[in-house]
Design brief:
4 helices; 80% helix; single chain; 0% strand; 110 residues
C-alpha cells in the first residue's frame, strides 16, 4: 500500500509540474526540462516497482475521471440548450438532480 501511495503523490507532483510549466512563457521556448525529465523517470520506475494492480487501478481512475468530466460537459451543454429554448424548469431540475450547478462541474474531478 505504501508504494501505491508514493506513486500517487509522485504522479500528482508530475502533473502539477507539467501544469505549472505550461503556464510559463519561458517553458515553451526551452528545449529540455531536466527537472521534469527526472521526475518522469522516477514515476516510470515507481510504476514498474508498484506492480500492475496499482497501475491498472490508477489508469482506471484516470479514465473514470475523464468520463465524469465528459459527462459533466454534456450536462452543461444540455442545460444551456434547454435554457435557450425557454425550458428553465427542466434545466433547473437536471441541475438539482445532479447536486451542483452545471457550470460548476468543469474541472471539479481532475
Amino acid at each position: 500500500m505504501l508504494g501505491s501511495d508514493i506513486l500517487k503523490k509522485m504522479i500528482a507532483q508530475e502533473e502539477a509540474m507539467k501544469t505549472d510549466r505550461r503556464g510559463q512563457r519561458w517553458y515553451r521556448d526551452e528545449k529540455t526540462d531536466r527537472e521534469l525529465e527526472r521526475l518522469e523517470s522516477i514515476v516510470g520506475v515507481l510504476h514498474e516497482w508498484c506492480g500492475s494492480d496499482d497501475i491498472d487501478r490508477y489508469d482506471e481512475l484516470k479514465a473514470l475521471r475523464a468520463e465524469v468530466e465528459r459527462l459533466g460537459e454534456l450536462v452543461q451543454r444540455a442545460t444551456r440548450e434547454l435554457r435557450q429554448r425557454k425550458c428553465h424548469t427542466i434545466a433547473a431540475t437536471i441541475e438539482s438532480d445532479l447536486g451542483i450547478h452545471a457550470t460548476d462541474f468543469r474541472g471539479r474531478y481532475r
